Write the structure tokens for this entry.
Amino acid sequence: MSLVRLAHRIATVQALKGRTLAGDRIGDSSILPQDRRNLRPDDPAHIITVYTDDEGRDLRDLTPDQKRNSLWIELEVAATVCNPAVPDEWGLPHTDAGLEITLDLIERQIHAALADEASPWANLWRRLHQGTGERRSVRVAMDQGLRLASRQISIEVEPLKDPPFGAEPTGVWVDFLSLMEGDPDLSDLATLVRAEFIGAGPITDWQTVIRSRLMPLDQSTAMLLDPLPEPEG
């Protein structure tokens, strides 16, 4: 039940591409430590990485979902210590002040990109949640051969409910799949995501409830969620 998280990450990445000083260096998650992500002595990179985590939900609650997800946008700006002759791509000095300015500029550009009404991906991003909660921006710095300035932005969102099992995509999900299918880099993934809607075929409403809450059959029967057996005779 993670299609809405997947959609949030993809929409964030696509909305930010080419809209900040990071250019197209926008990634969907990364398990590498910060000081090893595409940071080469001959290429001082500005990188943005997007994560989602910390979803909360009570599967035993039959009331409408009240989920909240944390969307993380991590900025990384590196300057080499061993190769100071590399020209600064953005016209800012690779000093502590220059790195801090770069972080501030990129953070501002991120906000502008996600708020852009002319961007189909940004519009989709805003439609994937019903509201936002706390927003935090925390700066991190480290020194491991590279002077690396990093900032982590967290946005608490109240996401839409995941689409039901066994049903054709509707509403925002139609637009999400359409945007993915129109992008050569995402079209193959779109095929996989589309298959997750229908699966093996359409299912009944009571099966949707049971599957979405991972109920055992004896529990769903006790709660009168599945059909009663046909009377004999």
